[in-house]
């Protein structure tokens, strides 16, 4: 877990999607960290192609977000054997408790999930597949800094294809089809994988949990080809970093694979596949900050966050972005 700490002022929390603050989804600021020099630059997301090179490969997460809030229960993930991971919200619970769900369904809490104080393994009494049930009865998960309700479309990105995330893989939210066309014109490739994100409201000292992922063989091949010719592999989101760094063989080469990953990336572990990362701005002491430190280095990361705080960048899923290359 990262010890990187700072004060996040309430006015720096993004309360609504970028298209309600400006001219579109891509109307967000972008702070750029140069990994080699440590230089930090103010920019705009629409300038992204200027910081990439012909031959670079962006790897994106195609997981689509489900409306996973069910009153006082947040659905987090589907487990093998028809079980699920859920997060009871603002209630005291015990093993064996039966929690009511919308539409006459209910969740029976079986046991805590791993060593978590908030996540539970549960059986759900529903008569349809979980995705169908959530689409009918659920709403997008939102936290207190998002005051209004927005439709599930606000929590999808242009890459979304495979339903399964409880919360949006938000690093890709600013991309538009126009941006993708521009990147291809400049010789930047786009490859795809899947990692389904669970609920993000981790308790203090709670380590990141397992998430389901799939790295297609074609994506693995493109990553290997990019690195062989000297191009850079740039992950769009920490989810992509986790999937790629999990899917390596004994020689450190990316291969196609699928399954559950519990990989936690720290500066001590380092990164072996990715050469850069586009991500949002993360909360103080968030575990993802350890991953960012592994990629950019502590000094560069601290400099970038000092600039972001000083120049009023916006945080969270509807906020601004940070490019490390």
**How many strands in all?**
17
Shape: globular
DSSP strand content: 15-25%
Number of domains: 2
Structural class: alpha/beta
- CATH homologous superfamily identity of the largest domain: QueA-like
CATH architecture title of the largest domain: 3-Layer(aba) Sandwich
CATH topology of the largest domain: QueA-like
Helix content: 10-25%
Describe it for me?
This protein has seven helices and 17 strands. With 325 residues, the protein is an alpha/beta fold. The protein has two domains: 10-65 and 150-324, 3-Layer(aba) Sandwich (QueA-like); 70-128, Beta Barrel (Elongation Factor Tu (Ef-tu), domain 3). It has a nine-stranded mixed β-sheet. A six-stranded antiparallel β-sheet has the order 5-6-7-10-9-8, covered by helices on one side. Strand 1 (29-33) and strand 2 form a beta hairpin. It is globular, with a radius of gyration of 19 Å. The mean pLDDT is 95.
Keyword list:
Elongation Factor Tu (Ef-tu), domain 3; alpha/beta; 2 domains; 325 residues; six-stranded antiparallel sheet; nine-stranded mixed sheet; 17 strands
Ordered list of secondary-structure elements with their pairings:
Elements: H1 18-21, E1 29-33, E2 40-44, E3 57-61, E4 63-65, E5 69-70, E6 73-78, E7 84-88, E8 98-100, E9 106-112, E10 120-125, H2 130-137, E11 162-165, H3 177-185, E12 189-195, E13 211-215, H4 217-228, E14 233-236, H5 238-246, E15 257-261, E16 276-280, H6 288-296, H7 298-310, E17 321-324
Parallel strand pairs: 1-17, 3-12, 3-14, 4-11, 14-16
Antiparallel strand pairs: 1-2, 5-6, 6-7, 7-10, 8-9, 9-10, 12-13, 13-15, 16-17
Helix pairs in contact: 6-7
